[in-house]
Write a structure and sequence with these properties.
The structure is a homotetramer. In chain A, strand 7 (102-106), helix 4 and strand 8 (126-130) form a beta-alpha-beta unit. Chain A starts with 11 loop residues before the first strand and ends in a 7-residue tail after the last strand. Chain A is built from seven helices and 15 strands. Chain A is 24% helix and 32% strand. Chains A and B meet through strand 6, helix 3, helix 4, strand 11 and helix 7 of A and strand 6, helix 3, helix 4, strand 11 and helix 7 of B.
């Protein structure tokens, strides 16, 4: 097993007990994690192989896992409503997000979608993200820093209506309550043929947004919702999960065209 | 407008008329596209700006768009059942797929999932994809080449049961009818803590797979289905689409742990 | 086997070949049914037991079944959009529909919902159904007569806005495009505590209706959509159906209260 | 307002505060209801009109409503898993349930489905319901008595495998964990052409049941699931409910044919 697979002091690790009981922690030499299942001494974690277990003082075994981007997102600070993984995935698949893309986002909120996108455009792409509310700007910054993704993001605490100094973006993301008010601003940031993405919880928002998108000469406008239902697979008694999230948000995708009059 | 935004001879372009009528073509100097809405002369396309229009001989205006990865996937050769965008997205969000990841896949099928993943692991990651059936191997190779993604993929026409020479993969993908028969092989390819992903249409497959995954000490096993429903947003008459796909496949995710006895 | 289980001349019978190939016909002595699978002589059907088969001239065996109310509804004349069985069921379960209930309905449309309700309120209940468009009024009348349900229905070809001469109805059903315009009329028809039901395809209609219901002092207002997905159960390969209907209509239920000022 | 619309002593009434806060109580002269919103004196309720309000000692106004069958079902004793309204509705719509039908059911469980069906077959139909577990038999009996529906039900505390003395039933309902073991018994109870209905939570149960139904010459076999999602309609911010039930049970419907060998 290569040393790359061993926990080093300072690593973010996921300690996994069950689907619902899992801790995302930084393994610092000499420090400890206190849980209701006992205490974990990080000295026992550092040097251990990922995929192995560590015992708590109550003899509970926790699996030491390398956190995935989803673990990081789910365990981030989130004072705002955040975009769910099912919706993040659809944004990745339908917007053309990927390495090297330039993305402009408003607003950053808690930075969860920002982080997801930053992780996918690395190392040559970049996210330009705007958040007017200072308290969320700080949360987003902290979250991105904790996930080591801040270097791929230009995060600004400004009012969008004053205009953005971003041009030739491949993707523009609107994650705020009145996206129709920012379609023109985003149009200015996007490359011709670029993709606009919007996340809206209500049907009325989608309706107003789509009207504005048509007015601003966007084409290939598509709105959708993504539903995720777990399957509880157990020998001889497999069935869908009894509980599911009923609704998060509608996603809208549209492509910018060039207006001969507006350039 | 920068020249990067102008069509060059040899570019793959998307000519867009409506949501249902769109053509993915290579713009070759001197060649033409024949459609039921008239003929497009590629000489009119080359040099045009992306986001602008070209007229057919029947005066129909088509939008010239830069194809997204989704356009490429949807227009690829597909003699096999392929993974739908809604499921591709969930795979991206739940598996930790992203730049730099090493992925092993069996089987390649038409190469649609392969291409989606190759696009996301660029430029430093790599997909090792295996396909035993020679006819699909060729399709996958052609599709990847057409999308300029073959350089990120090691595509092999071999029998998986003979073992794979891949190790330390971050993600292992099983997209075949009897995934339980390949869990051990994939276990050998994966780094400790690595993620296994499987795509199965029936609940019986999921049930057998999950049994095997538990036996092979995978943890954090999660199965799900993703449903996508379009929203038809029109002023004063917004409603979900009347038509939707009822089912494609269940996705299963699980993480490899280290068995002290098996190493 | 009692004679009640034998087909008599004049009976409506369902001839069943497969889930998709089924005929609802009246078995008339001396007449024949022509199908692409051969000809059925009704003389072979009359006197046969329900649940048995009859052979066509091409030796195809068709099952002779007593039609259920659903068969009758699905095979009725339907020049208009009709209410789907999944929605009919929810109306039955959520509105309190049942034997003895007095129901007022606007508009009758093709009479499919009318017939479903008439079948459930028998023998002592009654449906008062209104349809302003003469062409649909005739269709509804024909459909109800064919199903032997017209005797439980008072069907009128009038303009609702002129007021209805129905009072003390237990349930009021609005199945038309602008239900908010008829809430007051329906309020007048309903018993205090009675249930209003509305069927609307768009969210905008539901929004306007609910506003009006609140204004008119209805309580316990509940809107919902019902999704039905088939399960293809086959040994070792059970999965949801690939095709499903994405959307039909939203159902809204609400209860009338007494306004001390309006009585 | 007719006296039929006034509460009489002994009536079951629904006292409604909000969608989540509602009480189903019998209004008995001289008695009181204690709630966290104050005390209701039934003397204030008796003689009041349905649809009007009564005040608690804390000046909270509760609406006095006539309970619908759904209110009765939702507020019944339920020590067992019960059938949800969305599924009850589909059973009504897809099985042909209605006035005059003879129905055989196994097992009765808490009697919720029994009561729903009894209400719909009144006054000339009948439910024959069997429950082997004495404790549930008693619950079902109490629930049916409370809803004034016991007179339409023959409820027996017997072992089904000993055979049932019911013949010529129009509908047979299997609501137990191993329905495949009772298909033959139910076949014997059903009229030729009669409808079998089964409620099963897992896919494996449906698979085994359908195998058995095919073996026993049932046709038109159809399995489905019903999903209900609420719509939160509010001016300018209408969206689906964030919470929904992910899964309850699969419904299976099938029709009995006559086996020339078995009669």
């Amino acid at each position: 097993m290569s040393s790359a697979n061993q926990v080093r002091s300072g690593d973010l690790v996921l300690l996994y007990l069950t689907a619902r009981k899992r801790w995302l922690v930084r393994a610092i030499e000499g420090e400890k994690l206190h849980t209701h299942r006992g205490i974990v001494d990080f000295n026992d974690v550092i040097g251990a192989n990922y995929g192995s277990t560590v015992s708590t003082t109550l003899s509970e075994k926790l699996w030491i896992m390398m956190p995935s981007i989803r673990d990081l997102l789910m365990k981030s600070e989130r004072p705002t409503q955040v975009v769910y993984p099912k919706d993040l995935g659809a944004i990745a698949a339908f917007s053309g997000l990927g390495p090297g893309k330039r993305v402009v986002e408003a607003g950053a909120g808690s930075g969860v979608l920002t982080a997801f996108m930053a992780n996918l455009v690395r190392p040559n792409g970049r996210i330009y993200s705007f958040e007017i509310r200072p308290e969320f700007f700080s949360v987003a910054e902290r979250n991105l820093k904790k996930m080591d993704l801040l270097e791929y993001v230009t995060l600004k605490n400004v009012d969008l209506q004053e205009g953005l100094d971003v041009t030739e973006a491949d993707i523009a993301v609107l994650d705020l309550g009145d996206p129709w008010n920012y379609v023109q601003v985003m149009r200015g940031c996007l490359v011709a043929g670029g993709m606009l993405v919007s996340i809206c919880p209500t049907m009325n928002q989608v309706e107003k947004l789509v009207e504005k998108l048509e007015e601003e000469l966007f084409i290939d406008i598509e709105s959708m919702e993504i539903m995720l239902r777990g399957l509880a697979a157990r020998t001889g008694m497999t069935r869908p999960n009894m509980r599911m999230v009923g609704h998060t948000a509608y996603l809208t995708f549209a492509r910018k065209t060039i207006d001969p009059n507006k350039g």
